[in-house]
Design goal:
There is one protein chain. The chain has 4 helices and no strands. The protein is an all-alpha fold. The relative contact order is 0.15.
Length: about 130
């Protein structure tokens, strides 16, 4: 693995950490303070965070990718939609089947979705 790829992974993890905090905080605020059902608040927080994450991936994580084509943006957001489905499935499973609190479930869902996101989003922004 090249040094640049290692730095890219570090940047991806940093952006992912910031995005996770945003997603986690929005999930909690929407569920606890606004009274939104956890699966709805999870979908809302995830969707908002995907847009934020895309912006940071293009300008910071995947350096040198230049101007993004409409095709690349569509692929990026399309993989985000699949990630949202995966997130929702994990949230439902971890809460309804495994009996975890929704905030703990979000951690497990994030780990699974992060792996999906790195592989697919790297391909999307690289073209």
């Amino acid at each position: 693995m090249t040094r640049e790829r290692m730095l890219e992974i570090v940047r991806f993890c940093l952006v992912g950490g910031v995005s996770f905090l945003m997603d986690y905080g929005l999930l909690y605020a929407l569920t606890e303070f606004a009274g939104v059902y956890y699966l709805y608040s999870s979908a809302i927080s995830f969707s908002i965070t995907v847009v934020f994450n895309y912006w940071l991936c293009v300008i910071y994580v995947f350096k040198g990718v230049g101007k993004q084509s409409a095709r690349q943006a569509i692929i990026f957001f399309g993989t985000g939609v699949v990630g949202l489905g995966l997130n929702q499935l994990c949230m439902w499973f971890f809460v309804a089947v495994a009996g975890l609190h929704y905030m703990l479930a979000k951690i497990g869902a994030t780990i699974i979705v992060t792996i999906w996101n790195y592989i697919t989003k790297r391909k999307a922004v690289r073209g």
